[in-house]
Design goal:
The complex is a heterodimer. Chain A has 13 helices and 14 strands. Chain A is of the alpha/beta class. Chain A folds into two domains: 166 residues, Rossmann fold (3-Layer(aba) Sandwich); 127 residues, Rossmann fold. Chain A has a seven-stranded mixed beta sheet, sandwiched between helices. In chain A, strands 9-11-10-13-14 form a five-stranded mixed beta sheet, with helices on both faces. A two-stranded antiparallel sheet of chain A has the order 1-8. The mean pLDDT of chain B is 96. Chain B contains ten helices and seven strands. In chain B, the strands form two sheets. A five-stranded parallel beta sheet of chain B has the order 1-2-3-7-6, sandwiched between helices. A two-stranded antiparallel sheet of chain B has the order 4-5. The chains are: A alpha/beta, B alpha/beta.
């Protein structure tokens, strides 16, 4: 299966929107080649602005651009965009509800060798608790490009979480992508697996494995965590009555947390959240995903356990 | 529309300053809370900007070519609200809704109220927003100017210095920072809380054109705002030496008034001092 990092999808998408919309600007807190912001810089240097290693300044400057009729994309690593500049995002992005797009790359433990300081594990929680911001975790390079393009027309702020390493391309150009509308990838009846980002592909593998055991899992790509697609999730779990959530992110308040909130109030059922429970560390992406229980085997085990307990 | 071609009528502006101080005190008394000292210290700065310097249109607050003002020290908003109401951005009677449920006149400025360019009040953010606006204005070949008023205590925020670097790096001569140098912050004297040895030297070393002025002298303020327009390469910073609580003897330099509103009897004493007809 062909593999590319989702950050490349942003790079392709931002060039395209740069061509289509003259009011799109890109802001970068250093790291321009890591975030692929430099792809835009090469094409449209007059609309590219660097801020040095100063994320707080960059986020508020993005607000200044948005208040002046521009559509800014502010790019840095997810840890810094969400954590270091959180109050700036809270006041100058979320509370003013402007069309500002925050690009956080290097999401998840699969960042690898750089270790815990650079592995963003809390952005979904930190961003989705703020009003107005759409929180998007594209599954592959194609979806990341679509999300970038969609963000321009979305009349609210977005936070787009991207990954560093190549991940399998599982969607097609013609597949529909709409912010806030989850994609049902596999139909099943025994258990629902809801995943985002790199964990969607692992979930599809788990689905295949489960089939060999006679278990039919429904797999949902929940690329938009906020606003959450209540309808697609509820329709699925009403059929299956069991749900596993999978994310390369803390299970506290993240995608699994969002699903738990929704189901807790609307349709409480058996549930297992798979994700990070602590900080990561240095290591190869494959080693880390295995060590922290983020593989298809972990997902399949959780699903089997739920089906047994039903 | 107000523009800088208007002749400076110092006497008239001094009367307006008294009216604005009266309105600030009335609003704060009615609200029962708010920042008295740091509102009274910025009155002349706002008056010179809004009545003689900036190009803006109260009837069309979103007019494309307007100069923009950001109150980064958002807690001083009673002064800004009083000026905006006086100019007709919203009805004068709205002033008495300050800090009340459902009012557009929030405890700190909130985007959406006519004349308010951005939410502010979480200290340190305004200058970065101003940099974004100045960069956007330059992209669009606009001739307007972006003004950003900061507190002296606000300079403790690291983000101010990030923005100071950005403005100088991009040679944002269409940006003018102003410091309300009233020498106090909530915990006490600025020099005791976090002493910046020399504010002008620090900003100069960051690459800014720096001027100092008596922040209560209308003529001097007008002149310095015009002077910095001649700077075409660097961002400018005007350090306005002010008195916290200016205009009311028992509030001046008494830092207990940082975040306290006058009570009815104090309001009456203060209004007598302002000696308005």
């Amino acid at each position: 299966m062909a593999m590319e990092p989702t950050r490349d999808g942003f790079g392709e998408g931002i060039i395209e929107v740069g061509k289509l919309y003259k009011n799109v600007v890109v802001l970068s807190a250093d790291l321009s080649s890591s975030t692929r912001a430099n792809w835009f810089k090469e094409k449209y240097p007059e609309r590219f602005f660097c801020f040095g290693v100063a994320e707080q300044d960059m986020i508020c400057a993005a607000a200044g651009f948005a208040l002046s009729g521009k559509i800014p994309f502010a790019c840095t690593f997810g840890v810094f965009a969400s954590g270091r500049a959180w109050d700036q995002v809270r006041i100058s992005v979320s509370s003013m509800d402007l069309n500002i797009n925050v690009i956080g790359t290097h999401g998840g433990v699969s960042v690898g060798e750089d270790g815990l300081t650079h592995q963003a594990l809390e952005e979904i929680s930190l961003m989705r608790c703020l009003p107005n911001i759409a929180v998007i975790v594209p599954v592959d390079v194609i979806e990341a490009k679509k999300a970038t393009i969609a963000a321009v027309k979305y009349p609210h702020p977005t936070y787009i979480r991207l990954g560093r390493n190549p991940v399998p391309i599982i969607t097609k150009e013609k597949d529909k992508f709409k912010i806030g509308k989850a994609n049902l990838l596999k139909k099943g009846k025994d258990v629902t697996i809801i995943a985002c980002g790199s964990m969607v592909c692992e979930s599809l593998r788990a689905c295949e494995f489960l089939k060999s055991k006679g278990i039919y899992a429904e797999v949902i790509n929940l690329h938009t965590i906020e606003p959450i697609d209540k309808k697609t999730i509820l329709n699925s779990v009403k059929k299956t009555n069991a749900v596993v959530t999978v994310e390369e992110h803390t299970i506290k308040g993240g995608m699994g947390g969002a699903v738990a909130e929704l189901l807790g109030e609307n349709y409480p059922i058996l549930m297992k959240r798979i994700g990070m429970k602590n900080f990561g560390e240095s290591g190869s992406p494959v080693e880390l995903l295995k060590k922290y229980g983020l593989t298809y085997a972990n997902i399949a085990d959780a699903a089997l356990d739920l089906v047994k307990r039903k | 529309m107000l523009d800088k071609s208007k002749k400076l009528d110092v006497g008239k502006l001094e009367t307006i300053a008294k009216e604005i101080r009266r309105d600030i005190l009335l609003m704060l008394e009615q609200a029962g809370s708010g920042h008295t000292g740091g509102s009274l210290s910025i009155v002349e700065i706002l008056i010179v900007l809004y009545y003689c310097k900036m190009k803006h249109n109260p009837k069309n607050p979103k007019w494309q070519k307007r100069d923009k003002f950001i109150l980064s020290k958002g807690h001083g908003c009673p002064a800004l609200y009083a000026v905006l109401a006086n100019l007709g951005y919203f009805p004068q009677e709205d002033l008495l809704t300050l800090r009340k449920l459902g009012s557009g006149l929030q405890g700190h400025p909130r985007y959406g109220l006519p004349g308010i360019e951005t939410s502010s009040g979480s200290l340190g953010q305004g200058l970065s927003i101003a940099c974004g606006m100045a960069l956007a204005a330059r992209m669009d070949n606009m001739k307007n100017k972006i003004y950003c008023l900061m507190g002296d205590g606000e300079l403790d925020e690291g983000q101010i210095w990030e923005a100071a670097m950005t403005a100088a790096h991009y040679n944002l001569s269409n940006l003018c920072g102003i410091i309300d140098y009233n020498k106090y912050q909530i915990d006490g004297k600025v020099c005791d809380v976090m002493n910046i040895k020399s504010i002008p030297d620090v900003w100069r070393s960051f690459g800014w054109n720096v001027e100092e002025v008596d922040g209560h002298n209308i003529k001097a303020l007008f002149e310095v705002f015009n002077k910095v327009d001649n700077e075409k390469k660097k961002p400018s910073l005007i350090i306005a030496h002010t008195i916290k609580g200016k205009g009311v003897s028992f509030i001046e330099k008494d830092n207990r008034w940082h975040g306290v509103a006058p009570r009815k009897n104090e309001l009456e004493r203060a209004l007598k001092e302002l000696d308005l007809e």
